[in-house]
Amino acid sequence: MASSITLPSPAKLNLFLHVVGKRPDGYHELQTLFQFLDYGDTIRFTLTPEHPGVRLESPIPGVADRDNLVIRAAQTLASIAEHPLPGVTIRIDKRLPMGGGLGGGSSNAATTLVGLNWLWQLGLSEEALAEIGLSLGADVPVFVRGQAAFGEGVGEILTPANPPEDWFVVLKPDCNINTGKIFSTEGLTRDTAKIKIRPAFEGDASRYRNDCEDVVRKLYPEVNQSLDWLSQFGPARLTGTGACIFGRFPTESAARIIWESKPSGITGFVAKGVNISPLHQKLTELK
């Protein structure tokens, strides 16, 4: 048994996000296209047989253990194991902003499920891990499965997709967005017509949008300003409920030219879209 493993925990983009209805339980029905980025956090898992249980090497400021998806994912796996497991210390090197719509917390949870299943030699299937992931959050299953996908339901009904692996400029305006506030706003579009299971890059891409974007623009001027700026260079869009926005470019050099000209005070990064998650690429190397 290996004693440690270091794995990527990548970002995702919602290349579009349509709100197509509201369920009786209050959750919104969505259609979206997920794609991963070759950029994200890194998580190291180290077995500690001398110290049982799950611990973070450095707790995340402002996030209690009971609310930390990494801790919850690890503890859930440990609770279903058929034999006692060695303890584990988890180190998270964060690069993804919290509350940015990039799926950082969900990605961290998925990397924990996949990584500890390997390190603890639990032998759980991808299907089983995705089911556990759904109990932690609607976006966790797509990270567990590791394939770009057309998502329906609350985002958990996944059909593999292969959008172009273009380059993206991703900007993080200086604000934190409350997802609950966005979905409870009266002006949110909730009746976009459903589309067939086909990637957004087929046909007229102008038909696809993020239904949360107009609400976020009105409530968060920083996002509105950033979208206006990035839109000068081509279509720009909100990912998830924000606050991050992205523009698509055909080459890395084209993306970096725009990146270098961004307004001061805005953080972000340049990254390549990938249809197979960097997490799964890494695991393939380990086999």
Structure characterization notes:
The chain has 287 residues and is α+β, with helices and mostly antiparallel strands. The chain has one domain (1-287): Ribosomal Protein S5, domain 2 (2-Layer Sandwich). 30% of the residues lie in helices and 28% in strands. Strands 1, 2, 3, 4, 5, 6, 7, 8, 9 and 10 form a ten-stranded mixed beta sheet that branches. Helix 2 packs antiparallel against helix 3. The chain is globular, with a radius of gyration of 19 Å. The mean pLDDT is 91.
Give the SSE order as H and E letters: EEEHEHHHEEEHHHEEHEH
What portion of the residues fall into strands of 2 or more residues?
Answer: 25-35%
- Number of folding domains? 1
CATH architecture: 2-Layer Sandwich
Task: List its salient traits.
single chain, alpha+beta, 9 helices, 28% strand, 10-stranded mixed sheet, globular, 287 residues
Task: Map the helices and strands.
Blueprint: E1 4-22, E2 28-48, E3 54-56, H1 69-80, E4 87-93, H2 104-119, H3 126-136, H4 140-145, E5 149-153, E6 157-160, E7 167-172, H5 179-184, H6 213-219, H7 221-230, E8 236-238, E9 245-249, H8 252-260, E10 267-274, H9 278-286
Parallel strand pairs: 3-4
Antiparallel strand pairs: 1-2, 2-4, 2-5, 2-10, 5-6, 7-9, 7-10, 8-9
Helix pairs in contact: 1-2, 2-3, 6-7
Summarize the structure.
With 287 residues, this protein is an alpha+beta fold. The chain has helices at 69-80, 104-119, 126-136, 140-145, 179-184, 213-219, 221-230, 252-260, 278-286, and strands at 4-22, 28-48, 54-56, 87-93, 149-153, 157-160, 167-172, 236-238, 245-249, 267-274.
